[in-house]
Amino acid sequence: MRMKIKALPFEVRRHFVALSERDSKELGVLSGDRVKISVGKKSIVAEVGIIPGMVKDGECGISNLFLSEIDAKEGDGAEVVPVPKPKSFQHIRKKILGGKLSKEEIYELINDIASGSLNEVEVAAFVSASYMLKMDLDEIEWMTKAMIDTGERITFERGTVVDKHSIGGVPGNKITLLIVPIIAASGLLIPKTASRAITSATGTADTFEVLANVNLSVDEIKEITERVGGVIAWGGATQLAPADDHIIRVEYPLSIDPKPQLLASVMAKKGSVGAKHVVIDIPVGEGSKVPDVDIGRELANNFVELGRRLGLNVFCALSSGGQPVGRAIGPALEAKEALKTLEERKGSSSLIEKSLGLAGILLEMAGRSSNGYEDAKRIFTSGKALEKMKEIIEAQGGEIFSSKDVLVGDKTYTLKSKKEGAVEAVFNKTLVKIARAAGAPKDKGAGVYIHKKRGEVVKEGDAIITIYAEKEWKLDNAIDIALQEPAVEITGMILEKFPSVRYLGGE
Amino acid sequence: MRMKIKALPFEVRRHFVALSERDSKELGVLSGDRVKISVGKKSIVAEVGIIPGMVKDGECGISNLFLSEIDAKEGDGAEVVPVPKPKSFQHIRKKILGGKLSKEEIYELINDIASGSLNEVEVAAFVSASYMLKMDLDEIEWMTKAMIDTGERITFERGTVVDKHSIGGVPGNKITLLIVPIIAASGLLIPKTASRAITSATGTADTFEVLANVNLSVDEIKEITERVGGVIAWGGATQLAPADDHIIRVEYPLSIDPKPQLLASVMAKKGSVGAKHVVIDIPVGEGSKVPDVDIGRELANNFVELGRRLGLNVFCALSSGGQPVGRAIGPALEAKEALKTLEERKGSSSLIEKSLGLAGILLEMAGRSSNGYEDAKRIFTSGKALEKMKEIIEAQGGEIFSSKDVLVGDKTYTLKSKKEGAVEAVFNKTLVKIARAAGAPKDKGAGVYIHKKRGEVVKEGDAIITIYAEKEWKLDNAIDIALQEPAVEITGMILEKFPSVRYLGGE
Predict the structure, then answer these.
(1) Beta partners for A468?
(2) Alpha carbons B168 and A222: distance in angstroms, whole number
(3) CB–CB of A94/A101 below 8 Å?
(4) Cβ contacts of residue B399 below 8 Å, gap of 6+?
(5) Quick one: closest CA in A to B89, which residue?
(6) Closest C-alpha to B318, from B352, B288, B273, B277
(7) What pLDDT band is residue B289 in, cutting at 50, 70 and 90?
């Protein structure tokens, strides 16, 4: 059908065309169907949106962004014809019907996801089918390989490449900021790509961005890693395993995190950077992603087996995930805590022990040490890790090299204990909620500092948490939550809950 | 957060607000999240869309359509705060995790679907979870009742209300245009609501629209049914079981038709109009929705049991669905064939036998006959059915009372046989494809007439199908398909496929 192009003054994610209701009926298409739009010899396939008032009859509305792809401008004539859904949609249907996908089918599917040829409802159907009906390890292996093959890759000229990954779910987990400099200082290469927060208070990319630029290209990641031994870059700025980003985008609105996609996502990122040895941190505990040890072990087995199939040496560590790692939550607070720990060579034991433990495993896997923990500790306490951290910050264009230069929110509120006792429980989800209400991750200085963790003794009037914010109204919102929903449970040391019983012992 | 309202000059289906990337970060929301927009004392909950270029920082873009709901206009100040997903989203997650939903959960869910509070990705997740993980009959019963309770209902002052439904999938199925006048002529009430085509060549509402107005309100359906005994109205123009429309909208892009939703959808429409006796036509055969008799029987059992739980007397008929009913496919062609059959009191045996059979079942169910088929036939051959049809057309504001006044497309092409033999197979899906390419259902006059059906003898040069179109280019597209993909398979009466064997028998 002959139509006239209207340039839409806004940008939509994928190829999209707005049609009038009359014209879409004329073409026999509904919203979500595809049409091919041809101008001269150039053409694009776009998804139809029928939005009354956006275009007139006879017009096809295309975002300015895509007009250049077909060398067209407002008012040009275009030929518009319906085209079927991509063939890979049939593979999604096969999965929905409970079938096992072949290698070729998975490659077609991941290719179409990576190129944006499948829309969100279709990708969501695939992801939720994977969640409900599972995928076997063959399918997961093919999916991982397809994710790697549909993206950019980094090949290093020299050195042994190692990597670490934490599957997330525990707040305050800034261990990457300690592990990367330790490993880089040991002579191994660690081109760490990290994510930004979606539902958490900060992602490692958000945290390191407080100190340096994390929007690195694949070439920059390669160059800096080869020069200083390591980087901490935002994975989303690269084209490493890009299908993964599309999958994550539909997982968020459904609040699901299917195991096949989790496994493939982690391993594809590692495979893309050519890692040989990978350590995977699986936090286990209430309020983290993995509620109990059995599920953690099964996941660990899957990671190791998938690594074997991909030629990656994988080691998994189940870690304590029931409360935050370290004491700071939020981008600047976490960057400050990590840098301070490197400077002082001491600090929160949960942060230091976990970082040295995982770094040590990597040193042993790569054959650099027979006692990895001790060697990692030596690099940490010698100050070499701090020196390496400064090199990495400088290489990534940063200008903050000292924890005292890291600015945190100047609007603060400290919640104090009204009774004495000991901390019985710390609630990860509440802490994240408070930190996000305070402005994290958008406001870098916002977050929560936790003064008392599980097992610690509390006196009346002791500070329990301090909320940091950049804006007064966000601080108020965060305080409201903190007062309604305690982040920490304190059990009294006297049995004050039973007023009819008098406890006669001393304090 | 304080923002300024921008009026968006187009209409989107649900409450939608466009935010800039900066502001959505500030609010901590992503596309698909909800915010509450308050102007003075009025407020709406809207779904966030982050579409660069649509609004400036500080602006919230709302469709004109919804501004009146909060008495707001362009430039007004509004308070925007994030709100959580509806509680019913947790019920969708429960289903995804394989749980059984309670009555209360299903009511909340259907209520939120009916009111548009859940978005397409969320409804799609529910529908595909129902497809993959099934629902039991309790859940289906509650879903049906919730669909009825969240919509309008019709209560008739007099008479016995009966209804029919065909689950679809077979082209040319214009039996409603014969059954409704026969039943109405018998003195029973039949307030038939029908659907429009989504993927087929025509829906009953599209077909009857050729003769009369089908966009009737609930009050009009009641008034006309009480006056003349029956109507054929488009269900989508009413608010009868509106949740169903939202569910159908997500089934289309996923090409799935889960049994729980199919059962609930049919029975909710019947329950909403207060039908006491319902006959359900289940076409069985290749190319229809139900490929074999066993699946058809199971579905029939489910319908009958669901009817029992709802207090509806249900009878199912498995019918032959392997080839079209009658010979015409497409809105005007089918309306013409139905009217002509009523006028001549003869015609395609598949059409007449099926219509009389189903009408007869209804007469027996309602206690009006001990030999329903014969009584239905008497009404048909006496001309009473034709008279009633004219009354119904007139009551629905129609002006076409004779089949010769029904106009069909004047661009035609007849495909002729190049060999002689007999029709071995007729392909439903190809016929629909050709009819849609020719312009159906949008171009009322477009469609296909099939001259030779299964078992019929064909001579060289005999017409096989005639394609009708209103536009030359659409006719060309339809011809292309018809030539590439035969709609009819003709088996030669001599063994011409084996050239090395000479068959010596006569013709």
Answers:
(1) A412, A447
(2) 59
(3) yes
(4) none
(5) A254
(6) B288
(7) confident
Cα(A36)–Cα(A68) distance, rounded to whole angstroms?
Answer: 16
End-to-end CA distance of chain B: 86
Give residue B309's pLDDT: 96
Q: Are A264 and A110 in contact (CB under 8 A)?
A: no
Residues of A with CB under 8 A from a CB of B: 9-12, 25-26, 28, 30-32, 51-54, 64, 89, 93, 96, 98, 119-122, 124-125, 128-129, 131-133, 198, 250, 252-256, 436-437, 442
Q: Cis link prior to A181 (omega < 30° from 0)?
A: no
Cβ-count burial of B454 within 10 angstroms (0-12 exposed, 13-18 middle, 19+ buried)?
middle
| Rounded Cα gap, residues A359 and B182, in angstroms | 82
Residue ranges of domains in chain B, CATH in brackets: 2-83 (2.40.40.20), 162-237+269-403 (3.40.1030.10), 411-492 (3.90.1170.30)
Of B12, B121, B256, the CB nearest to A96: B256
Annotate B107-165 with three-state secondary structure: HHHHHHHHCCCCCHHHHHHHHHHHHHHCCCHHHHHHHHHHHHHCCCCCCCCCCCEEEEE
Q: Give how far the C-alpha of residue A85 lies from the chain's centroid of Cα atoms, to the nearest Å.
A: 30
How many residues can be counted in chain B?
A: 507
φ, ψ dihedrals at B337, nearest 5°: -65, -40
For residue A201, what is the enclosing H or E element? none
Question: Mean pLDDT of all residues in chain B?
Answer: 92
- Distance (Å, rounded) from C-alpha A406 to C-alpha A333? 8
DSSP-derived secondary structure letter, A161: B
When mean pLDDT is compared across A118-127, A377-386, B220-229, B390-399, the lowest value belongs to A118-127
Q: Which pLDDT does position A179 carry in this prediction?
A: 98
Q: Does A213 have pLDDT greater than 50?
A: yes
What is the C-alpha separation between B152 and B148, in angstroms, rounded?
8
User: DSSP string spanning A133-148?
Assistant: H---HHHHHHHHHHHH
Distance CA A261, CA B89 (A): 22
Element (H, E) at A482: helix A472-484
* Contacting residues of A for B93, CB less than 8 Å apart: 255-256
> Among residues B361, B353, B344, which one has the least CA distance to residue B326?
B353
Select from B14, B21, B25, B128 the residue whose CB has the most chain A CBs within 10 Å, as the one to mutate to test that interface.
Answer: B128
pTM above 0.90, yes or no: no
Q: What is the pLDDT of residue B443?
A: 95
- pLDDT > 70: percent of chain A: 97
Tens-place pLDDT, residues B159-173: 999 999 999 889 999
Cα B39 to Cα B24: distance, rounded to the nearest angstrom: 19
Using an 8 Å Cβ cutoff, are B44 and B87 in contact?
no
Q: What is the per-residue pLDDT for B192? A: 97
Nearest to A44 by CA among A29, A27, A62, A30: A62
User: Is residue B169 a contact partner of residue B288, using CB atoms and an 8 Å limit?
Assistant: yes
pLDDT surpassing 50 at residue A502: no
Tell me what the mean pLDDT of segment A21-49 comes to: 91
* Structure-derived torsion over alpha carbons of residues B94, B95, B100, B106, reported in degrees to the nearest 10: 90
End-to-end, the C-alpha distance of chain A in Å comes to: 87
Average pLDDT over residues A181-201: 95
| β B34-39/B42-50 pair status | antiparallel
Q: Is A443 a catalytic residue?
A: no
3-state secondary structure of A64: helix
Active-site pick, A257, A294, A405, A476: A257
Asked if the ipTM is above 0.85, the reply is: no
C-beta pairs of B22-28 under 8 Å, 24+ apart in sequence: B22/B57, B23/B57, B23/B58, B23/B60, B24/B48, B24/B50, B25/A442, B26/A442, B26/B1, B27/B1, B27/B80, B27/B81, B27/B82, B28/A436, B28/A437, B28/A442, B28/B82
Inter-chain CB proximity B28 and A442 less than 8 Å: yes
